[in-house]
């Protein structure tokens, strides 16, 4: 049985109704015949299932419906249509900065946040030192929360949240907190939790994180489910979409198109590697200074002009150069 299963989940927001504008404006608009309710579907017909031990990565641009979907899975929201089924205890790391009091000290806030998450005082007493050490805030225990930087606040919230031992772990951009060293430590902690057989969902704008941590992936765009399945092909196609523009920027309509775009992206990346290693192969001048976005967009444009034989040759070269990779769980 699936640990998380969504069937045709659709979530609608209403703008301008009584609940959102209040009684006074509602009456005025009714009397002046200007009352109008607008509907916005944040998610439309989302269906997928993940098994025990799976880690699902969800990618998509801002406004794709990712966070709204997580709220439905955690029970914060009820889908307008469709159903969500989960098995076991859920721990959701969604808004790390909530649940703190700016006037209280770091130590007091640690106990407050722990209480809000359902931990007993005895539990917090035994884990307090571990929390502060992981957050690297030993020298700031007696500072008020408002005196901390935003990075420090996020580190404390993440440290407390990682005490959980759930069946399902929901992560919304929480691995982006702190500096690079803390991000690496956070990712290692999440992997440790997942190694215990926890099922998870991760939302991240870091494709690198999705590739490293997840064994399944889903792509959302403006509430539509574009793809669900293997991590690398979806991440490749999504990356190609992000770095394309104009007529070249298109969403795959089916799995065949997804795989074609994925292959195009991998060929473009190999082309870029060849430019750096073997500039003498190319008749055009190799640009020395280029942003990553501009370079990727240029490489994709060049690759789109190639013949199938030329793309296949690049893909074969990429396969030969690819490092050995642990096979993801089916």
Which descriptor suits the 3D outline? Answer: globular
Biggest β-sheet description? 6 strands, mixed
Count, helices? 11
CATH C-level name of the largest domain? Alpha Beta
Find the CATH superfamily of the largest domain.
Answer: P-loop containing nucleotide triphosphate hydrolases
What's the end-to-end separation, in Å?
Answer: 15 Å
Order of helices and strands: EHEEHEEHHHEHEHEEHHHH
- Integer tally of domains: 2
Beta-strand level of the residues, as a percent range?
A: 15-25%
- The percent of residues in helical segments reads 40-55%
By CATH, the architecture of the largest domain is named 3-Layer(aba) Sandwich
**What's the mean pLDDT score?**
88
Strand order of the largest sheet: 5-6-7-3-8-9
Rg value: 24 Å
Question: Which spans have pLDDT < 50 for at least 5 consecutive residues?
Answer: none
Strand tally is 9
CATH fold-level name of the largest domain: Rossmann fold
Structure description:
The chain has 330 residues and is of the alpha/beta class. It folds into two domains: 4-228, Rossmann fold (3-Layer(aba) Sandwich), CATH 3.40.50; 248-321, no CATH class. It is built from eleven helices and nine strands. The protein has helices at 18-31, 66-74, 106-116, 121-135, 150-161, 180-194, 207-213, 231-242, 255-277, 292-304, 308-321, and strands spanning 4-15, 38-50, 55-59, 81-86, 90-93, 168-172, 199-203, 216-221, 224-229. The strands form two sheets. A six-stranded mixed sheet has the order 5-6-7-3-8-9, with helices on both faces. Helix 3 (106-116) packs across helix 4. The two termini are 15 Å apart.
């Amino acid at each position: 049985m699936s640990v998380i299963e969504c069937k045709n989940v659709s979530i609608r927001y209403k703008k301008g109704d009584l609940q959102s504008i209040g009684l006074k404006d509602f009456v005025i608009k009714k009397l002046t015949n200007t009352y109008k309710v607008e509907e916005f579907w944040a998610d439309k017909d989302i269906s997928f299932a993940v098994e025990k031990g799976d880690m699902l990565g969800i990618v998509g641009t801002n406004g794709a419906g990712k966070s709204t979907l997580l709220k439905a899975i955690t029970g914060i929201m009820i889908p307008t249509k469709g159903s969500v089924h989960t098995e076991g205890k859920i721990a959701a790391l969604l808004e790390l900065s909530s649940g703190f009091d700016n006037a209280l000290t770091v130590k007091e806030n640690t106990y407050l946040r722990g209480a809000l998450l359902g931990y007993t005082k005895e539990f917090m007493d035994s884990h307090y030192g571990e929390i502060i050490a992981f957050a690297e805030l030993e020298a700031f225990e007696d500072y008020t929360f408002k005196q901390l930087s935003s990075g420090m606040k996020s580190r404390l919230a993440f440290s407390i949240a990682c005490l959980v031992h759930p069946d399902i772990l929901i992560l919304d951009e929480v691995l982006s907190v702190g500096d690079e060293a803390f991000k690496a430590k956070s990712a290692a902690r999440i992997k440790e939790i997942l190694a215990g057989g926890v099922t998870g969902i991760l939302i991240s704008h870091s494709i690198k994180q999705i590739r490293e941590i997840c064994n399944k992936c889903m792509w959302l765009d403006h509430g539509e489910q574009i793809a669900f399945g293997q991590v690398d092909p979806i991440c490749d196609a999504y990356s190609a979409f992000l770095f394309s523009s104009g007529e070249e920027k298109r969403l795959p309509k089916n799995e065949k198109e997804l795989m074609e775009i994925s292959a195009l992206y991998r060929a473009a990346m190999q082309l870029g590697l060849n430019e750096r290693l073997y500039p003498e192969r190319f008749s055009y001048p190799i640009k020395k200074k280029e942003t990553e976005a501009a370079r990727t967009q240029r490489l994709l444009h060049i690759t789109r002009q190639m013949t199938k034989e030329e793309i296949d040759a690049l893909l074969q070269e990429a396969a030969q150069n690819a490092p050995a990779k642990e096979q993801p769980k089916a």
